Amino acid sequence: MKARIKWAGEASFIGETESSHAVVMDGPPEMGGRNIGPRPMEMLLLGTGGCTSFDVVHILKKSRQQISDCVAEIEAERASEDPKIFTKIHIHFIVTGKALKPEQVERAVKLSAEKYCSASIMLGKSAEITHDFEIIEQA
User: Fold this and answer.
1) How many domains are there within the chain?
2) Domain span at residue 75?
């Protein structure tokens, strides 16, 4: 896997992926940023949320659960001094579908957290990561 990051002036950077996608990242105004993109550390959270959400949806579909939506809400705390690494991350899944079995959703979340999600497992080496979920019955 490869990526390329190019400085775009001030505190802005353009990240390009090997799969030909691009994203603008920017620093906060107090560091010369123009607030035209997410901060790099926010990108880490987005990547983690995307990775674990992909797993949960894939596992539930393989389990023949009738899932129609999955939202991962993430809250994180960072160290107060440099390096300001993540120290705590909480991922709350909101899973919507018909007749979803709580034990299947719990299993999917656990498998992602402990076996499949490379991003959260990697971040778990330095941060305490917790998970929970709620199920919304689709009408």
Assistant:
1) 2
2) 40-137
Give the chain as a DSSP string.
Answer: --EEEEE-STTEEEEEETTS-EEEEE--GGGT--S-S--HHHHHHHHHHHHHHHHHHHHHHHTT-EEEEEEEEEEEEE-SSSS--EEEEEEEEEEEEES--HHHHHHHHHHIIIII-HHHHHHTTTSEEEEEEEEEE--
CATH number at residue 112: 3.30.300.20
- pLDDT tens column, 43-74: 999 999 999 999 999 999 999 999 999 999 99
| pTM for the structure as a whole | 0.93
